[in-house]
Design brief:
The complex is a heterodimer of chains A (about 130) and B (about 110).
Chain A: E1 4-6, E2 10-12, E3 18-24, H1 28-31, E4 32-39, E5 46-52, E6 57-60, E7 68-73, E8 78-83, E9 92-100, E10 102-104, E11 107-109, E12 117-118, E13 122-126
Parallel strand pairs in A: 2-13
Antiparallel strand pairs in A: 1-3, 3-8, 4-5, 4-9, 5-6, 7-8, 9-12, 9-13, 10-11
Chain B: E1 9-12, E2 18-23, E3 35-39, E4 46-49, E5 63-68, E6 71-76, E7 85-93, E8 98-101, E9 105-109
Parallel strand pairs in B: 1-9
Antiparallel strand pairs in B: 2-6, 3-4, 3-7, 5-6, 7-8, 7-9
Chain lengths: ~130, ~110
């Protein structure tokens, strides 16, 4: 059974950084992309970015450009999402989710068909 | 403001049918797949529909998806109280080079 297992909850100070991990089982890294989606309390889903591990290429949402870095370690089948310059508005549950990488004219995209396996979520609280 | 537009809420009686719409543009739904997710409070989203109209293994055929032009729809028939949840649509947006979601629709089964 394919699983994505995320690291535990974090409490951070404003201005600091957080790095969340997402370990995949099975052949996820050979054939899939890993996306990061966050959900602030009482709010909807927000796509942050994604990576296609076999190509080591990442896409980022404009809202997070310059503050988020998504990486993947194929040797351990683990993806990472690091968010810097944290502020209180970054308090949210952060999810990793896999999708089959979609490639067509214009390149490959980490979110293309639908995210079929999700991690359990990591709560990040930013508070002074 | 979400790039994809969904109604904030829909409601229907048990056993009835409900349709949830997801409106986009040519830069997203018009040229890319729509997927749909179900989310219960405190849990991770669950994929209901991918590739516009396909159901993953284990998803009942009470759930269906379709796409026409720049809009997608999720249909749920034979409503059950256990279907009460938030539903989200998502797609890729070529103008933003990013994934995008709708704001979510809360389904109430009266």
């Amino acid at each position: 059974q394919v699983q994505l297992v995320q690291s535990g909850a974090e409490v951070k100070k404003p201005g600091s950084s957080v790095k969340v991990s997402c370990k995949a089982s099975g052949d996820t890294f050979r054939s899939y992309a890993i996306n990061w989606v966050r959900q602030a309390p009482g709010q909807g889903l927000e796509w942050m970015g994604g990576i296609i591990p076999i190509f080591d290429t990442a896409h980022y949402a404009q809202n997070f450009q310059g503050r988020v870095t998504i990486t993947a370690d194929t040797s351990t089948s683990t993806a990472y999402m690091e968010l810097s310059s944290l502020r209180s508005e970054d308090t949210a549950v952060y999810y990793c989710a896999r999708d089959r990488a979609g490639c067509s004219g214009g390149g490959c995209r980490p979110y293309y068909y639908g995210m079929d396996v999700w991690g359990q979520g990591t709560t990040v609280t930013v508070s002074s | 403001q979400s790039v994809l537009t969904q109604p904030p809420s829909v409601s229907a009686a048990p056993g009835q049918k409900v349709i949830i719409s997801c409106s986009g543009s040519s830069s997203n739904i018009g040229n890319y797949y729509v997927s749909w997710y179900q989310q219960f409070p405190g849990t991770a989203p669950k994929l209901l529909i991918y590739d516009n109209d396909k159901r993953p293994s284990g998803i009942p055929d009470r759930f269906s998806g379709s796409k026409s032009g720049t809009s997608g729809t999720l249909g749920i028939t034979g409503l059950q109280t256990g279907d009460e949840a938030h539903y989200y649509c998502g797609s890729w947006d070529s103008s933003l080079s990013a994934g995008v979601f709708g704001g979510g629709t809360k389904l109430t089964v009266l």
